[in-house]
Amino acid sequence: MTDMKKTFVLVILFVFPLVAYLFFASGVNRFGRLPVLTEEVGELSQLDSAETFNHKITILGFLGKDVALRKGNAFNLNQKIYKPFYEFNDFQVVMVMPEGTRDEVAEIKKGLGNLVDIGKWRFVYADDSEIISLFNSLQTDLSLDAQLGTHYVFIIDKERKLRGRRVDEEEGPKYGFDATSVADLNNKMKDDVKIILAEYRLALKKNNAERTTQ
To answer: What is the pTM of this model?
Structure first.
């Protein structure tokens, strides 16, 4: 084998895999953050002084006045999103509920609690105008129905920013996830929650590393 051929083989065996690795690694770093779609969502404490979005990764939903209509949504969310992630310290699920739905919520909580510890489920009660105001602050292309509910749930980060997908292969901008669709929760939302959790873990590791070097 000539020297030129040997050099070519070495390039193929060693250099090309390294270049490929660097290419994909840079892609992971570039696209490893979940896009911000809305910069500032309204604060939960305006509805309930004991609750907050700040410092929490929140899954936000609106079950509406006809709670039975979306009971299945809560159970889908419980199984596909809450159950895999509830052990993370800063994770929570918040359902904003119209006043007058407490009895129905109690039944839902009882059912959810049969499947997993629901200590990080939050049900926040508000009047109609407060619910509409909070929903509008998301600035999405979605809307609440006449009962102040929606099948969609949303990812809110620790700085009260709405996270989602700027370009989804099926929908264009994806502000929320359809809780009636196990596929949407399992194939898309779960991946996006993993991304944002990893994002915060990496930031925490970086901060810890910087403190130890100071």
So the answer is: 0.82
